[in-house]
Structures are given as structure tokens and as C-alpha cells.
Amino acid sequence: QVQLTESGPGLVHPSETLSLTCTVSGFSLTGYSVYWVRQPSGKGLEWMGRMRYNGDTSYNSALKSRLSISRDTSKNQVFLKMNSLQTDDTGTYYCTRGGMGGDYWGQGVMVTVSS
Amino acid sequence: DIQVTQSPSSLLASLGERVTITCQTSQSISNNLNWYQQKPGQAPMLLIYYATSLQTGVPSRFSGQFSGRSFTLTITSLEPEDIANYFCLQHYSAPQTFGGGTKLELK
Questions:
Q1: Which of A60, A102, A106 is the closest to B89 by Cβ?
Q2: Is the predicted pLDDT of residue A41 greater than 90, yes or no?
Q3: Interface of B with A in 58-87 (CB under 8 A)
């Protein structure tokens, strides 16, 4: 059974760094890409970037300067780090499996950027 | 980036009614578009992939079609459990981009 579970702090202070973890089960990170998607509060969905099955990464150019995605295949985890957070980064963050463009999604983790 | 325009943004429909939601892309993406359903507090669920293929386990009342840059999701006969938000996603090129979503409610 394919599952993705996002975890991380619910509250981040402005200018700090967000660190999120996507823990997967039911598939291998060397067989599928994992994407990060977010939905800022009151806005639409935004594709942030991906960890490809072969370890390559790519990022949305709008976020590239602040974003880093990595993984630990032995722990079945993909990591997102985004720095210089501002209040408009508040929203729900999802990880998705890249099969067929995004076949399974986690439930998401709500992140609030506030002092 | 490829723009995806989804309409309508909200929709009132009756049980048993035929419902259609549309996504239009700013450039050709072949059939690289998916449809998802999302209910409050739940993960999005893939309904249709590559524009017309029904994901395993999804009821056959859901279907997808496309012509050129216009993509449609159809529910042939609305059931109570279909009340949800729906959105499309183009995965032809990075960054993937999403439609703005459609909130489907009961009339």
C-alpha cells in the first residue's frame, strides 16, 4: 500500500528555515520520483520541485534560490528545506509520488509563518 | 510556465445530474493532464491520468476527454460522495502547473 506522510513544524518564524520530511512506504525512492507541492493560504497549488528516482533534483524557478530537496533512501525519506520564510509561505505542504505525473499524495502538513 | 485555466471555480449541481469541469492550457501538452478529487482534510485522490485513463478503483461515472488544449472531466450522474473540490494538473513540462480548482456543491 502506497503511503506518503509529511511531517515538520507547524510554526516557523519569519526569516527562518522550514524543514519538512516526507516518509514513504509501499514503493522505493529509487523507482519513483517524489514531488513537493504547496498551497499557500487562499491561493492555488504550486509545484515546488522534485527528487527524481535517480537522485537528480529540479526546482520551480520562482523558489529555486531558497529551496533544497534531498533524500535518504535507507530511511525512505525525502526532505525539503526552504530558507528565508515569509508570511506568504504560510499554507499546506504536500509530497506526492511522481507516477503518472502524481498518483499518490500525502495528506499535507500545515505550516504557519508567524512571529 | 504553462498556464492552466480551470472553469468553473464553483458549481452547484443536483444528485443524478451530469457535471462537466474544464481545463484549458496555454500551450499544447498532448495528453499530459491529470484530474484529482480532494475532500476537506484528505489527501488529493487521482481520478483520471493522461487525460482519459481512469485510475484503478475510481467509479466509471468519472471520465476524461480532451481536444487540443481543452480538457474535460465529466461525472455522468452525481452521487453524494462526489461533493468535493476538483483540480487538474499538467505534467507535460516542469514546473507542473495546476488549475485553480472547482468546488462542487449540492444544489
A1: A102
A2: no
A3: 87
